[in-house]
Design a protein that fits this description.
The protein is of the alpha/beta class. It is built from eleven helices and 14 strands. It has a seven-stranded mixed beta sheet with strand order 2-6-5-4-7-14-13, with helices on both faces. A five-stranded mixed beta sheet has the order 8-9-12-10-11, sandwiched between helices. A two-stranded antiparallel ribbon has the order 1-3.
Length: about 350
Amino acid sequence: MAEAPGETVDAQAYPGLILVRSIRMSEITVAIDAMGGDNAPGCVIEGTIAALSESDDINVILCGDSEIIKKGFKEHGFEGSLPDRVSVVHTTEEIGMAEHPTNAIRKKKDSSMVVGLNLVKEGKADAFVSAGNSGAILAGGTLLVGRLKGIERPPLAPIIPTANGVSMVIDCGANMDARPSWLVQFAQMGSVYMKEIIGIDNPRVAIVNVGAEEEKGNALVKETFPLLKETKGINFIGSIEARDIPVGYADVCVCDAFVGNVILKLYEGLASTLISKIKEGLTSTTLSTIGAALAKPALRNTLKDFDATKYGGAPLLGCKGLVVKTHGSARANEIKNTILQCRQFKEYDFTGKLTRGIGLTE
């Protein structure tokens, strides 16, 4: 941001910005698509309030219908005003989940998503967060915010819980038909992320495959494997089978977006199904219900480790600004954690470290 920390910015500095209170341009400003997702704008408002209560160096710009957003804050006790460090950019359009991504980005210029992405492009926000149309976010991140010089394709890179901590699946939704050179960059970017953001020294990088042997796999995997072996600066350990991902055998699991998205959705669906069946079993008889009451605190603590929402959203790595996609069904806690995740990215200068870490031209 151009403005120094502590300065007050009025509506003149942000064309279209309304409902502005005294906004400190402090550590980071996050633009949020207030209308995107199954539970918007309620979850966005709740998540924003929660994030601001945990950090005093975050500003939030909510993009969306101002009257709906005002009403939402009023329901949380903010009569006639907004919380400190919150402002709203009024928009008149929304991008639906079923709309064609590129067409929507090009035609709906006053949508909450396009306006939010442009705030990042113009340097008026440091990050953009949305639970909306995945394809539109990816298209907008690439077309509006733009790629870092030297990045072939930005991938979506979510963090998933494992038995040994967390791992990254990269790509999980951005590039369905990838090339070997793209996967090599995914490995490099994922390695920098896990080291700089998660704090894992020399993160283990593996390519998702149908077997451990080097000669196995489809054409993409077979072409990429030797390239990863030759890539300097990454700790490539070979192939990883899908069953070994939850165990945590690798810190960075590299694949094309089709494979990554299938892994992620199966992961989420299996987790919710198992939890449902466990609850069903624990309450099936009087005796098991008594046992469940005794085991509940320990079970709750164990399941917390497998709550993927606590890690925030999936960043679109390799863009000039930070773009983060949350689940379409995201609730307040995930929105809160994603806002805090953006703060961490800015604090650690992740874009700069990514640029230097994989040898790009700054």
